[in-house]
Amino acid sequence: MREPRRRGQGSAGRVHTAVTNAEYGPGVVAAREPESRRTGRPRRSARAPRDGDPRREIVAAASQLFTERGVAGTTMAEIARRCGLQQPSLYYYFRSKGELLDEIVGEANRAPLELVARVRAAGGSPAVQLYRVIRSDVAALCALPYDLNEIHRLAARDPDAFARYWTERERLVEELAAIVTEGVDRKELRPVDPRLTALTLMSNDEGTQNWLRVAGRDGAPVHTSAAEHHAVGAFLADLTVRGLLAAPRDLERVRRSADALDAAAVVA
């Protein structure tokens, strides 16, 4: 069931309807979706958090400010004002800008690295592993309250503060390239360049999140349901893996295997 159409969604609703009404359905836990955190403490205004989690709203505001002004040029007081929080309330959630940076980097790279590790440990063919990673990663990215591209711009602007970010991002490329290499060696995947393929996969995932956030006619973010996030992830996984398979007719087998492994992971 779709949520009611929101103002600013424009023609994007038709796109989401077409995807959601296909064979895809919810069932994957978002890899970058953080657990519920504390939700107490007073606000400067009566404005409620967009998604019920003040930590995520704070991270979104900090990401924007860091991108606009740089890490050194942003104060905790400015972050609190952007969120509508009293400054002591901000310190209840994050004790320093360093903690905020750590949270941002964790969502950008560490969570998908953990996802890849879990998928690899669960087994399945390389194509199945890629399918699971793409589907879950896109669903999680679509649920983020900010544009991940803001983090990339921020990391490029302040490479010293984000040295760990670039190290972990390279690890993510290498882990994905290793899956592709195995698939090519086993002749399950077409003979493609593993690193270029890994970079393209990451670009596709993150680009999808970026475009869905500004798909409304007026450029406003499109807020969709978890089921729609999952449907978009499944759609991109289908599109990507079909293009990589040596035998595209195997896509149905890959999808069924991915569904079974995801279901087993949810039960566990």
Q: Can you describe this structure in just a few lines?
A:
This protein is mainly alpha-helical and 268 residues long. It has helices at residues 12-20, 54-69, 76-83, 87-93, 97-122, 126-143, 148-157, 163-185, 194-213, 226-244, 251-267. The chain has a domain at 13-33 and 105-267: Tetracycline Repressor, domain 2.
Layout: helices, strands, pairs:
Blueprint: H1 12-20, H2 54-69, H3 76-83, H4 87-93, H5 97-122, H6 126-143, H7 148-157, H8 163-185, H9 194-213, H10 226-244, H11 251-267
Report what the structure shows.
- By secondary structure, the protein is mostly helical.
- It has a domain at 13-33 and 105-267: Tetracycline Repressor, domain 2 (Orthogonal Bundle).
- The protein is built from 11 helices and no strands.
- It has helices spanning 12-20, 54-69, 76-83, 87-93, 97-122, 126-143, 148-157, 163-185, 194-213, 226-244, 251-267.
- Helix 2 crosses helix 7 and helix 5 (97-122) runs parallel beside helix 8 (163-185).
- It is elongated.
- The model is unreliable at 1-50 (pLDDT under 50).
Keywords:
Tetracycline Repressor, domain 2, mainly alpha, 11 helices, disordered N terminus
**Ranges with pLDDT <50 over ≥5 residues?**
1-50
Tally the helices. 11
Spatial shape: elongated
Query: What's the β-strand tally?
Result: 0
Radius of gyration: 19 Å
CATH superfamily of the domain at 13-33 and 105-267: Tetracycline Repressor, domain 2
What is the CATH architecture assignment of the domain at 13-33 and 105-267? Orthogonal Bundle
Distance between the termini: 27 Å
SS-based structural class? mainly alpha
CATH class of the domain at 13-33 and 105-267: Mainly Alpha
Summarize the helix and strand pattern as letters. HHHHHHHHHHH
Helix content: 55-70%
Determine the mean pLDDT: 78
Report the portion of residues in β strands: under 5%
The name of the CATH topology of the domain at 13-33 and 105-267 is Tetracycline Repressor, domain 2
The largest β sheet comes out as: none
